Known about the structure:
With 148 residues, the protein is α+β, with helices and mostly antiparallel strands. Helix content is 41%, strand content 44%.
Amino acid sequence: MFKNFTLMCGALACTMMLSQGASAAGNDTQAVEAAVEKLRVVMVDPDLKQLDALTSKDLSYGHSSGKVQTQAEFIDDLKTGASDFVNIKLLDQTVKVIGDVAVVRHTLDADTNDSGKPGHVTIKILQVWTKHHGHWQLLARQAVRAPT
């Protein structure tokens, strides 16, 4: 009888730990989705403090042209209008959280006005986010042209 009780208690404890892990992963997924949305908003209407908080000091920001920027270069282009998003839509987004790392994929569809030149872009994006001091930050981003 005691053996059965011990086995039941062990099974219950395992079930509770697994459900807490699933709950934490769900919370992290929602937090990453919220961070991606905040970044989308501040890329359209740049807020330097928010851009700094949402991106890692070690940011590697890759463009579909092959150009790769640091955090400072990425933020400076948004600040000066060299990179100017009029609007951004994120489509078909997926988020996979593994510990303190998240992989985000989506299609970015945007109207731009880079250096005063109107344009439109539809590109596939891969983002890598890391949890830093309890907050999600963009560590790496790579864009590729969407197949036509």
